[in-house]
Fold:
Amino acid sequence: MTFLYKTATSLMRTLPAETAHRTTIKALKAGLGPMTAKKPDPILATNVGGLALTNPVGLAPGFDKDAEVPDAMLGAGFGFVECGTVTPRPQGGNPRPRLFRLPEDKAVINRMGFNNSGLDIFRKRLERRRENGGIVGANLGANKDSDDRVADYVTGLSALWGLADYFTINISSPNTPGLRDLQAADAMDDLLGRIQEARAELTGDNPSTPIFLKVAPDLRLDQVERITQQARTYGMNAIIVSNTTIDRPESLKSAHKDEGGGLSGAPLFKKSTRMLKEFAAAADGRIDLIGVGGISSGGEAYAKIRAGAKAVQLYSALVYAGPGLVMDIRSDLARRLKADGFNSIEEASAA
Ligand SMILES: Cc1cc2nc3c(=O)[nH]c(=O)nc-3n(C[C@H](O)[C@H](O)[C@H](O)COP(=O)(O)O)c2cc1C
Structure:
């Protein structure tokens, strides 16, 4: 079976990147994904921002923008799956080509621009799977042509409340012009204030659904401190560090290195992990962190945890390694935790 998936992943690399992605989603929808009956090692259990996970390795958003295959990806061994980014109205995104593989760099550049089918379809899909169990999050964004982008996040929250196990407020995609300006102090006060109000109404007397904030890796230290403080003030439950970078490191070799958009995969690892450490110092244990960016092995997942994350996510490495990677990361991570004498992810993250 492993051989089959490896062959399929190599074949996929001969197709244009976006066609390969669409083909993969169709295959997963048809039930052709890997299914692992294996329960995670108990040492991998973690709690992040109020979410209890049986293993800390999550699927980052962008892979399943329209919530088509969350159960297949949970079946592949991910401890949680974040669908989206979803915007209130469907939108086509940027013109193609807009997704590029950088094989020599084990990286990806994308300028998809929040192409997605919109909230109605997303909601129906979550409704259909609601009894299936597993942790599925919804990553919320704003329409490119929206007059009130903050209202778009509130619309997403209200439409999906009760159907997602957590929400992520994505203000860090580089591909919707002006979106990352929502990371500025005043804009964040407005955004997080309105989300807090909406959340209080939606929650009533029930336990609230966790809400996370996803940030860019291209931030200054003073912004890190201020964003951490604001996230806490407005009751965010965790910060996800990070989205793709607009930087282009000198080391890039591949033909597509100068394409516009966000860079992810191996060349993002160092930068996003450094940023995670800065957030960990600013948070000082008062708000949880999820580490994302360039993870393709158990060693890298472990490095994010040692940098202060209580869970991790990945996407780009799947393009090169295929879905069997998740199980390898899980077992390597468990081995590393034990080898260093830790009893839990939480212990390793706080050490
Ligand atoms: C093709 C592609 C599409 C993405 N789309 C989204 C998205 O819609 N929303 C989001 O928050 N992040 C999106 N991301 C960013 C990833 O979720 C992740 O933060 C980033 O790629 C770093 O992780 P990685 O190096 O493991 O890929 C996308 C990434 C890629 C490669």
About this structure: The first strand starts at residue 46 and ends at 48. The mean pLDDT is 95.
